[in-house]
């Protein structure tokens, strides 16, 4: 086991721009697996069926490098407050969660991980590596805890003392025999319940327990069907993801501007989309072209129009009626259902006598 090589790898990762780097054994995490099974048994994962096949996916991952025993865990601070002055009228703005405002982190981080892989192979020609970011069957937050990054908060996200919760996680699995870092001192949220109280849809049903079927991130990005009517008003103007539990977290005081230019707002869609102009995107291809290289392509055009219709319904502004009426004629069933709901909301809002809410 090489302590020297391990230190060198972490230095290289930091020089390459990673904000956090640590090493932990690559091994199954039985406790987290048990939690995942209990979670999916309750149906809390909604339509994210891939979370049900953890065991077979894990076996396939292990088979890629049968003698892998180490994992290099990386963290990237993505918090960004920079941006261009907002030109979209406030009643037409659909909000994007912070993680999705710049370039697609999967692509950006994978590219950097490849650099790390090259470095490892240069150090030892027998080195085999597999790079992961988000999509592999790994409990990324639990491994990050083990690598000493911090601890899991009641909102279920990893909290770090250097950047708060605003970090992406990524890993390199390798057969190099590396020296593991000690897990950080056990942290705790104590009695704090700010994230649970702040969740607009009460998706955090208990500390460390999320019912994804109510989470705005799930509903706007992963869920492909109709959004339950009772949740629509609570979504407000959020069209892609949600940050409320993280913003309410006291650890957000540790947030600092990212040093990754790719995650600055001006490199992607930015913090807001013009809801009306989304309806001018007429084909899936045009949608993909417009948002290529950003996380927004994770949602399809019709999912985004569904989300936009909900936001317009919540704004209740009569000026968007012509756009919505046109969509009611042209779009398919999923969009229509939400557009019809939005038109009803606008009608109800504009019938009410003027005056304070
Ligand atoms: C599925 C998924 C989602 C789902 C479900 C979220 C969830 N909480 O599981 C949805 C779509 C809702 C989602 C939303 C978001 N996600 Co997401 N998501 C994932 C994914 C792909 C898998 C997560 C998973 O395995 N869930 C399964 C269940 C069983 O996990 P769990 O119940 O939360 O249990 C874990 C912890 O809570 C903890 N735990 C559970 N119980 C207990 C009890 C105690 C006492 C303790 C101490 C700990 C603890 O241990 C478990 C194992 O780690 C990961 C990537 C990955 N491969 O890990 C990204 C990931 C978790 N997501 C991420 C991000 C950024 C987000 C959003 C912030 C995006 C946004 N702004 O819209 C939101 C945050 C919402 C939230 N509060 O979680 C980051 C989080 C980084 C971080 N700092 O933690 C990850 C790691 C992706 C990445 N590579 O960076 N996500």
Describe this structure in words.
This protein is an alpha+beta fold and 357 residues long. The chain folds into two domains: 3-86 and 102-174, no CATH class; 194-351, no CATH class. The N and C termini lie far apart (66 Å). The protein has helices at residues 3-15, 30-41, 54-64, 105-123, 140-146, 194-198, 216-222, 232-235, 244-248, 275-278, 284-291, 301-315, 321-330, 333-351, and strands at 20-25, 70-77, 93-96, 129-132, 150-152, 158-160, 167-174, 204-206, 209-210, 238-240, 272-274. A hairpin with a 5-residue loop joins strand 5 and strand 6 (158-160). The structure holds cobalamin.
Would you kindly provide a brief summary of this structure?
With 357 residues, this protein is α+β, with helices and mostly antiparallel strands.
> What level of helicity do the residues show?
25-40%
Q: Mind describing the biggest β-sheet?
A: 4 strands, antiparallel
What is bound: which ligands? cobalamin
DSSP summary: helix tally: 14
Tell me the β content: 5-15%
């Amino acid at each position: 086991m090489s302590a020297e090589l391990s230190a060198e790898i972490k230095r290289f990762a930091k020089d390459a721009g990673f904000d956090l780097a640590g090493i932990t054994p690559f091994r199954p995490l039985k406790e987290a697996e048990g939690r995942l099974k209990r979670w999916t048994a309750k149906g809390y994962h909604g339509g994210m069926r891939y979370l049900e096949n953890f065991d077979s996916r894990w076996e396939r991952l292990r088979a890629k490098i049968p003698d892998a025993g180490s994992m290099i865990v990386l963290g990237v601070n993505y918090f960004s407050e920079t941006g261009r002055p907002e030109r979209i009228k406030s009643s037409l703005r659909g909000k994007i969660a912070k993680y999705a405002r710049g370039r697609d982190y999967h692509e950006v981080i994978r590219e950097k991980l490849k650099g790390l892989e090259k470095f490892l192979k240069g150090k030892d020609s027998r080195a085999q590596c597999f790079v992961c970011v988000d999509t592999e069957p790994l409990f990324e937050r639990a491994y990050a805890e083990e690598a000493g990054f911090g601890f899991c908060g009641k909102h279920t996200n990893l909290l770090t003392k250097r950047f708060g919760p605003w970090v992406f996680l990524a890993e390199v699995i390798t057969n190099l025999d590396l020296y593991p870092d000690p897990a950080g001192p056990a942290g705790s949220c104590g009695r704090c319940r700010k994230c649970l109280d702040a969740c607009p849809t009460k998706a955090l049903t208990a500390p460390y327990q999320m019912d994804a079927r109510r989470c705005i991130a799930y509903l706007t990005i992963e869920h492909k069907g109709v959004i339950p009517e009772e949740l629509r008003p609570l979504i407000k103007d959020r069209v892609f993801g949600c940050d409320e539990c993280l913003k309410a977290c006291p650890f957000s005081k540790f947030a600092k501007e990212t040093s990754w230019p790719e995650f600055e707002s001006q490199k992607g869609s930015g913090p807001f989309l013009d809801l009306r102009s989304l309806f001018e995107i007429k084909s899936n291809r045009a949608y993909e072209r417009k948002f290529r290289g950003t996380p927004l392509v994770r949602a399809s055009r019709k999912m985004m129009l569904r989300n936009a219709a909900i936001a317009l319904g919540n704004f209740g502004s009569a000026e968007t009626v012509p756009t919505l009426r046109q969509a009611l004629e042209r779009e398919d069933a999923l969009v229509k259902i939400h557009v019809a709901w939005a038109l009803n909301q606008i009608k109800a809002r504009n019938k009410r006598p003027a005056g304070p809410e």
